[in-house]
Amino acid sequence: MYNIRASYKSLLKYYGNDLWTQRERHIKDIKTIVEFSPSDWLLFFINQRKKRIDYINKLFLSISENDKNENFV
């Protein structure tokens, strides 16, 4: 298990003297990386919808094939 706590001295060493400003910059950098544009979200949801439709079609196809096999037995 990792040690999540970090001492203030080690944070000062990592971020420099102006710890709060550096922390705010780091948070802004993370937000710019994480935030997606609306077009990215649209592509993501279209992709997820296509995956769900493909899964449902595959599921129904396998069910219908099982029904056909049971009728011939």
Automatic annotation (TrEMBL):
The lineage of its organism: Eukaryota, Fungi, Fungi incertae sedis, Mucoromycota, Glomeromycotina. This is Uncharacterized protein.
